[in-house]
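Example A, followed by Example B.
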Amino acid sequence: MQQAEKKQRGRPASSSATSHEQILDAVQAILTEKSVRDLTIEEVARRAGVGKPTIYKWWPSKFALVLDLFERQKIPTVRAPMEATAEEVIRLQVATTIEFLNGFFGKVARELVAEAQSSPDLLREYQERYIMPRRAVSHEVIYKAITSGEFRRDTDPDILIDMIYGPIYYRLLIRYKELDTAYGDTIVTHALSTVKKEKHS
């Protein structure tokens, strides 16, 4: 089933692309009013003005629909300019992530994570399509910093990524305090203090 899902994924060609975008637009409109759990293929088809078979031609489930919507509007990938330090890039990545999660897609992310707890397939898809690609970009930045001497040689990239983004997603999911860029900056300062090389005069 997983192979079938991957085979169907992606934007269709020519005139079908219009219906494809209309369907994803309908999903986004519905999710401004309802949760991912309450989303139905029937309502998506009605809002998009297409038949259910058209939807199932491209997406095997409502979760595949939501993941495609999420991927269409995902957080922009922030890569390092040649002259930027790793710290500058990480701070920019964190600020961009927080800005994204404070909008509509923060709501969607919370609901996807909640649904994924009882759906191993959804959890795997969410990890593969969203989490892992973003971690790969962060790995690049950290390895570059280790090589250049900005970060200590014993820096563990996975641990550092968890130290930075774990608190962000904790605050997103639990919502006991506001998730803002000042909080993100503070997290980065504390996390990087454990890996930055001391400068000797």
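Example B, a separate protein, is given below in the same form.
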Amino acid sequence: MSARFDDLIHAPTRLSIVSLLAATEWADFRYLRDTVGLSDSALSKQLTTLEEAGYLEVRKAFVGKRPRTSVRLTPAGQGAFAAHVAALQEIVARSGLTVVPD
């Protein structure tokens, strides 16, 4: 995998969504909405964009009579995120700084 900056993922809201999904197998729509701080419609739009790119899988089900939407990264989404992070690390490394996680 080569480092590749991904303009689709780089948008701040989508970067937040993808980074949350990279840390879990499936995430509930409400968890994503509340963590990223978006309205239902704004999150739906971002998820649709990522799904159309092949980066997400969206699963809709019912728990009792309530609809539940869960989302996960596809292998393509995981690869795109890893390549994007690597590209960002290369950009930062050129500055002479190091990125150290907290």
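On Example B: Helices lie at 7-10, 12-22, 29-36, 40-52, 75-94.
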